[in-house]
Amino acid sequence: MAVLSILLLSLLFSVSHQQPHLDSSEQESVYQILHSLNPTIPWRNLFPDDLCLSAPHGVVCDYPTQLNQTPHIVELSFGYVSDETPNPPCSPNATLHFHLFNSFPYLRKLFFYNCFNHTPLSLSPSFSLPSSLQELVFINNPSFISPLASLLQNLTSLRRLILIGNAFHGHLPSQIPAFLNLEELTLSRNNLSGQIPSTFGLLNQLKLLDLSGNNFQACLPDSLGNLSRLLKLDLSFNAFGCRIPESLRGLRSLEFLDLSFNRLGSFGVPLFLGELPTLKEVYLSGNSLSGAIPEIWENLGGVQRLGLSEMGLVGSIPVSMGVYLKNLSYLGLDNNNLEGPVPFGLLEYGGEINLENNNLSGRVRLSTRVGQKLKLKVGGNRGLCLDNIMDKKTDVPDAVVFSGASSLLWFDSLFLFSFGVLVFTGF
């Protein structure tokens, strides 16, 4: 048995030494990148051997299927995220020589988190990343100041492009055929501008499109309705104008829609929303859609969060909302011109309901369901009278009522706790 064990160990040692080492140019480039991101750490001393056998978290090689194949770097992730993903940390004055990435012809993923916060960085017009990249992620790098077009050159294999909280600027590319493999496009909180090219409708693999928090303008193209696989569309906090295109009824897989805080207007809450039964979250707040709330809720029983605040809505709250929206955890109807009573059904299932600053009237009776937690904001409706679950009444016109609360919740440091109901005034 001892002889057999020795033979096996000898064989494993022999095989391991037959495995080719990481290409020397790739190894050297990794060292240089690590040094430029954080020169306070002795990377070469900590990881002196083949980086495919021993490397910092975030430096990943492929695993050749044949002994004679040379391993290559396929993933590079930098910037400490958490103890579960302890990527090499970046120093406060991190910088980077981008030409070093030309050494990684097999690179599939490149990730930077919170690395570039002080020293301004920009890309030269001739810069290009390896065409093998499938996933490119830059999150919270505010000193990365560069045109978006410079970053995207040559990236014909991209499946996920995630650029959040950086300083990329310029327009979206119109030459979409180069990006037909894209499944996720998240460009939120940058300085991008212009409009959405109509060619975006050709991205038929796209499942997530997030352009929120930029400076986009103009109308939404009708071609967005061609994205039949789209699960999430977030265009909030821009300056999009015109109408919400009717073609969005083609988004048959859509679960999340956020068009809030743009300049969309004058056509009311879109009726086609009632044709999208997969919707779970809808946010249209901060636009000038006006009009009455339509009767479209029968097929939208799966909606969990609905934001219709600050839209100039008029008329009454449809009773059908209380009948069909049984999964709501949030409803925002505040700061409109709504009038009339509050449908009791809205208050049956808990969650948060904001009805502040309307012209609502009548008596509001709260549910008595065991274990229910309801946060109800009704301040600014002078005609409302609130009845709580213990038959205690308040005629405080600016009341916020928490029903079934298990602990004290603070609001503007003014509160009254009695009989299991919290009534906050202090508006």
TrEMBL record:
InterPro entries with a match to the protein in the record: Leu-rich_rpt (IPR001611), Leu-rich_rpt_typical-subtyp (IPR003591), LRR_dom_sf (IPR032675), LRR_R13L4/SHOC2-like (IPR055414), StomDev_PlantInt_Reg (IPR052941)
Domain Disease resistance R13L4/SHOC-2-like LRR span(s) in chain numbering: 152-334
Family matches, as SUPFAM superfamilies: L domain-like
Top-rank taxon: Eukaryota
N-terminal signal peptide: 1-18
Keyword Protein biosynthesis recorded: no
GO cellular component: apical plasma membrane
One GO-annotated biological process of the protein: pollen tube growth
Listed Pfam families: LRR_14
Record's keyword terms, sorted: Leucine-rich repeat, Repeat, Signal
PANTHER family: LEUCINE-RICH REPEAT-CONTAINING N-TERMINAL PLANT-TYPE DOMAIN-CONTAINING PROTEIN (PTHR48004:SF59), OS01G0149700 PROTEIN (PTHR48004)
Name under which the protein is recorded: Protein brassinosteroid insensitive 1
